[in-house]
Amino acid sequence: MMIAREGRLDGISRLGKAVIGLAGAICLGFSSPALPQPVPEVATACSDGSVTCLSQGWSDAQRQWWYTVSQGSRLLPLSWALALKTEDGASAMFDSANLQRIGYLPNPVSRANPYGLPVGFVVDHDPRRSADLMCDRFAETCRSKTMREPWLGLNCSACHTAEITHQGERLRVEGAPTIAEFDALVDGTEAALRATLTDPARFQLFAEAVLGGRIDDARRASLTAQVNEQLAWMAALRALNHSDLVAGPARLDAQGHILTKVSMVNGASAPSAEFQSDAPASYPFIWNTHQQSQLQWNGIAGAILKLPILGRTTDIGALIRNVSEVIGVFAHIEANRGYAGLGYDSSVRVTEMVGLERLLSQMQSPVWPQAVLGPIDPVLAARGKALFEEKCSSCHAHLDPTDLRTPAGDKMIDLRKSGTDVFLACNTYLRTTEAGNMAGQGIFGFFGDEIAETDATRKMLVNAAVGSVLGKLDELVSSLFRDIEPERGAIVASGALGEVLPGVADPVKKQRARTCLSESDPLLAYKARPLNGIWATAPYLHNGSVPTLYDLLLPPRARNVASNEPEPAGPVRPETFGVGSREFDAEKVGYVSDPSTAAWVFRVRDDDGNILPGNSNAGHDYGNAELDEQQRMALVEYMKGL
Predict the structure, then answer these.
(1) Across residues 553-569, what is the average pLDDT?
(2) What is the widest separation between alpha-carbon atoms in the chain?
(3) 589 within 8 A of 636, measured Cβ to Cβ
(4) Average pLDDT over residues 122-140
(5) Out of 42-46, 386-390, 550-554, 585-589, which region has the weakest mean confidence (pLDDT)?
(6) Distance (Å, rounded) from C-alpha 159 to C-alpha 64?
(7) Residue 481 has pLDDT above 90, yes or no
(8) What Å distances lie between residue 404 and 3, 287, 299, 630, CA to CA?
(9) Quick one: 600 exposed, middle or buried, by C-beta within 10 A (0-12, 13-18, 19+)?
(10) What sections of 242-304 are H helices per DSSP?
């Protein structure tokens, strides 16, 4: 255990204590909301009784550390975040109530969370190693030493913690996908900063709060310049990430955002806008990740090597994945100079991410809470088990909720066989950019294939992640990265294709899909994994295009490749449904999705009836039309208990 209830500490718990002490120190330097006295050492919604937390193998102290520890993400200086109002000026931008409005979860005030920030909103403070990061981009921010101040960022719990409500009961599920709207957070922050800068009276109040009343012309001019630097950076990222396809709640094109960030920080003269972030995905559920051979929906990060670090086993593939994610979500990194093999300077916190990965290895999948959601019918579930073993078990191995050791038996299913929307995998596979400083380097710095002047952006992502890890030589040593590049299969032509993406109007998208469906590569696939805890992970399919498990067992109308088979005669998957409710549908298993009452509506098709690339609900259809209503309900009943 990381932090034992009787107070014994191991290495990771000492990190947690250090973070708690740091947060307390930060509290002395900035004004903050009135805190209860005494401030509790450990407090989460689970411990204060407002939420029922499922038993997943963690103590509340471990849960608190997961919610509050920094990975090196830096969205805004903390003083700015505490002073910033929403675009309309009606409320504090980073007030817990405002962030709950877009789906983030509340987290009580504690020593580790003195500002009462939501789950996963954390403070990063590293005045020594972050003092001179990205100074070519943020010249005044560096000159004024703002880089050395505490910054607000996010950690992985913001996106991988869920809350379910049912008939007045609230359930917390660790490691499950959030329903939060990440794009609303990013766009709202930029809009709030812009509104503040353009309103003199509002900027005066902002400056007084940030500067503590020590305002003169020089300080005001410096703060103005710093805000302009952040706005220019945000606008540049938004321009590359922009898509007409809105992700909405519960989805994010995370790989698109991450690859855009790499294009921006590698020193290339003109990052390509050819590929935008238009393939939104559900946030993966992350229990049992340490038991899987491939990570992410499309297996972009392999669990390629496990080595003892700091006295415990660490999965290097998972570490690279986690560093890649924090690079995409606001980490500062100097990848435009130096050499990955010698390390890039960055704000990334490798030790903490090693600790987070070890903590995740203790997370059990959630068990269906019968006392709240109702009992599982044993007779119906037994029928469902027989059907599951016949139709599903060849791809989805069984894994007991408490089993944290057995290999997960996950498999990569190629795009042609899975039939699901191609664009998450396809965009990542096809996207290229100028390599800038990374040109001529190995993917792993000194090792791996050499990166060309213009090359696959995913190669530069690995280079940036490895360089960030190696930049913390006091935390890790470069020899760990020898010979760990995953093997890639040869690209070979598949069989002839008929019409690709029938119902899609965009010719560029149709051609990209044809390319990806005609080639064979490990990245052109989606992962099938054990389904333990699947009941808590709606919406379904990698792009969140199916609201419930019951609907997943219906055949889709949409297809990736035209077929001579007639459209299903019976019920089909809904092509329009609401997203954003936390109220649980215990019969169909998913969130209540009535579009007439929803804050946001998912649509497979546009107003003209054309399928929206990225939103297709095709695929994962292995004879669904042959199932009758009783069989579907039996399968759902069985999957409740996985």
Answers:
(1) 91
(2) 76
(3) yes
(4) 90
(5) 42-46
(6) 15
(7) no
(8) 19, 9, 20, 33
(9) middle
(10) 254-265
Q: Which residues contact 105 (CB under 8 A, 6 or more apart)?
A: 45, 118, 119, 120, 161, 163, 172, 178
CA separation for the pair 429, 512 (Å, rounded): 10
Looking up tokens 């939104």, which residue turns up? 280
Which residues lie closer than 8 Å to 566 by C-beta, 6 or more apart?
none
pLDDT in tens, 42-60: 999 998 788 999 999 999 9
Residue type, 12: I
Q: Which residues contact 382 (CB under 8 A, 6 or more apart)?
A: 638
Query: To which residue do tokens 């709640």 refer?
Result: 249
DSSP assignment of 337-380, as one string?
SS-GGG---BS--HHHHHHHHHHHTTPPPPPP-HHHH----HHH
Measured in degrees and rounded to the nearest 5, phi and psi for residue 322 equal -65, -40
**DSSP per position, 133-194:** TTTTTSHHHHHTTGGGS-EEEE-GGGTSEEEEEETTEEEEEETSPP---HHHHHHHHHHHHH
Q: What is the pLDDT of residues 176-211, one digit of tens each?
A: 999 999 999 999 999 999 999 999 999 999 999 999
> Nearest 5 degrees, angle CA 582-CA 585-CA 588?
135
**Which strand (E) or helix (H) includes residue 82?**
helix 78-83
Tokens 């999965």 belong to: 315
Q: Say which residues have a Cβ less than 8 Å from residue 168's Cβ, sequence separation at least 6.
A: none
β pairing state of 76-77 and 151-154: antiparallel
Q: Which two tokens stand for residue 479?
A: 């020899």
**Per-residue pLDDT tens for 414-447?**
999 999 999 999 999 999 999 999 999 999 888 8
Residue 239: φ, ψ to 5° = -60, -40
**Domain limits, the chain:** 1-241, 370-428+495-640
Only one residue has tokens 């698109």, namely 256
